[in-house]
């Protein structure tokens, strides 16, 4: 039986349109924005769960509710069966530190730390000794092909290399879940594909649970075990790449893969129709 590691039950989150804007602005009369509108879903341990949607559809809000960087207005978020709303501040910090890693589009590295010390950061705050954390950070840098730049500083590296450091930093603490918010979107197309390949290689090796937000359907199809499509705060379809391509729930969903070569997934489906195991 497949096991769900994260579960959302009827999660809502709305924002006042005047948040962050001037008082007395015209926005005050507008209704609240439903960034998350009755989201229920289960994420299975070991899958790459990709969230896709137009800008403003609620992808980042959804991702950030998974580690409570954003607290839902109502509903429950469960991690390994435990409601995050029941954790105190210390337990929440510990959960984020050890169980739910995050990789950002902006890399978010520490400029004044070497690459090695950036990767070792999570171990340092967990109290791991210097020798041990350097050993583990080095091993992780080897996995992402960057052991040779361990002593350099982030500004000396290309964007792709910096994001590999970001990935190594998130992975070194061995989190059960990795949240990735448009993590490869700032990279040029070739480097972006390399990073996708690296993630797939690491995933084949480690079978972590990855939740990955992207605008790009091609990336979603390449990476996703399942893909969730968001529209105006709602989940409009959740399924495997094959499901979504062969039975898009609406024109909005179909719009996402207009211009994307979907033949590989359509082929998979048509083989499934005619091919039967011989044993
Ligand atoms: N702090 C906030 N205050 C007010 N409104 C917000 C806030 N954060 C998000 N929103 C609104 O909630 C909705 C969902 O935003 P969210 O950032 O989750 O969407 P998104 O799909 O990730 O967009 P993008 O792809 O552009 O990052 C949008 O209408 C956005 O303007």
Automatic annotation (TrEMBL):
The keyword Ubl conjugation does not apply. SUPFAM superfamilies: P-loop containing nucleoside triphosphate hydrolases. It comes from the Bacteria. Keywords: ATP-binding, Ion transport, Iron, Iron transport, Nucleotide-binding, Transport. Residues 6-257 form the ABC transporter domain. InterPro entries: AAA+_ATPase, ABC_osmolyte_uptake_ATP-bind, ABC_transporter-like_ATP-bd, ABC_transporter-like_CS, P-loop_NTPase. GO terms for molecular function: ATP binding; ATP hydrolysis activity. The keyword Transcription does not apply. GO terms for biological process: iron ion transport; quaternary ammonium group transport. This is ATP-binding cassette domain-containing protein. It comes from Rahnella contaminans. The lineage of its organism: Bacteria, Pseudomonadati, Pseudomonadota, Gammaproteobacteria, Enterobacterales.
